[in-house]
Amino acid sequence: MNTKLSAGNTIETRCTRCNGVLNHTIVAMVAEKIVRVECSTCHGVHAYHPVKVPKEPAAAKGTQKKAVPSRTSKADPEAAARAEWQALQTGMDATQAIPYDMNRVYRVKSLLSHPNFGLGIVQLVIQPNKIDVLFQNGKKRLRCG
Known about the structure:
mainly beta, 5-stranded mixed beta sheet, 145 residues
C-alpha cells in the first residue's frame, strides 16, 4: 500500500521528546520530503527523524570469518628451572656448599645446602634481606641476613 503522503497524514516515526517510535502528524513537507512532524502523544513539533531500518547480520551477508591461529602454550617455568639445574649441576661440588642460615649474607652464584630443599645455587640477591635460589625442584625465595 504505497499512498502518497501529504500534510495532515499520520506517520510512525521517532519522537525526540518521548524518545520512542510513535504516531506523528505530518506538519510540513518540501516537495515529497517530510520536514516537520507533530507527536500525537506529547504534541511536540520537531524535525522529521525517519525510523532506522535494522541492518542484516554480518553472517547472513556470506562473509567468512578469518581463521584464528592457534595459541602456543608458554614454556613451563618449572621445566625451565629443572633444565637450568641440570646444566649447572655438573660444575657443583657439594663439599663446597655453605649450610643455609637465615642470618647469613649470600652472594650470587654461591652454593648452599638447605635442610629441606637440598643443594642450591644463589641466582639473585634482593636487598635488603632476600635471595632467589635454584634448587633441583625449582626456584625458591629465601630470607637472608
